[in-house]
């Protein structure tokens, strides 16, 4: 058992308790104000450091932004060139394939006593000039071209007999439209 004996009179003890409570009541808001001030100081320091980091980062990024813009332009240019290349390769590939098949077909229908001197393809029109030892060979050649799956509107534009020594040679010019290219 514990006994406590106070020699301080009751009114003085109450005054001391009241003073202690007042100090506690004053200390709580004071601690809150000090805490807010410390928090504010920490916040200001963090903000200052963040601004310094941002400034430093911006100074490092400034030269890179120009480079990034140039890289973006170059990438767009590369994509455009690649697209153009594909289109050209596709067009060239289709033209070469059709032309090689057409040349194979012409070589199969030209008579043995006839030969071509020029073959021109321009805007979907095929023009051939050549010579034959006999006139009927030109007719056979035109007939073979008319049977072609790649040609239409086959026409003899010029036909002429010339003397070459003791022989008579028929010179010809034939035109035709490539199917799918004309009006």
TrEMBL record:
Parts of the chain that traverse the membrane: 24-43
Presence of the UniProt keyword Plastid in the record: no
Keyword Transmembrane helix: yes
Top-level taxon in the UniProt lineage: Bacteria
Keyword set, alphabetical order: Membrane, Transmembrane, Transmembrane helix
Name of protein: PilN domain-containing protein
The organism of origin for this protein: Candidatus Segetimicrobium genomatis
Lineage of source species: Bacteria, Bacillati, Candidatus Sysuimicrobiota, Candidatus Sysuimicrobiia, Candidatus Sysuimicrobiales
């Amino acid at each position: 058992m514990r006994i406590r004996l106070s020699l301080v009179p009751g009114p003085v003890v109450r005054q001391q308790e009241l003073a202690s409570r007042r100090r506690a009541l004053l200390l709580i808001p004071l601690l809150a104000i000090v805490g807010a001030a410390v928090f504010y100081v920490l916040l200001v320091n963090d903000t200052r450091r963040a601004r310094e980091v941002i400034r430093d980062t911006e100074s490092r990024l400034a030269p890179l932004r120009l480079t990034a813009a140039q890289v973006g332009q170059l990438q767009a240019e590369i994509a455009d060139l690649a697209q153009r290349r594909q289109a050209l390769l596709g067009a060239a590939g289709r033209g070469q394939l059709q032309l090689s098949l057409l040349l194979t077909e012409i070589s199969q229908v030209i008579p043995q006593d006839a030969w071509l001197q020029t073959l021109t393809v321009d805007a979907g029109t095929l023009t051939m000039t050549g010579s034959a030892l006999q006139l009927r060979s030109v007719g056979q050649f035109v007939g073979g071209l008319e049977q072609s799956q790649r040609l239409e509107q086959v026409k003899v534009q010029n036909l002429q007999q010339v003397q070459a020594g003791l022989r008579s040679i028929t010179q010809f010019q034939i035109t035709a439209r490539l199917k799918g290219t004309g009006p």
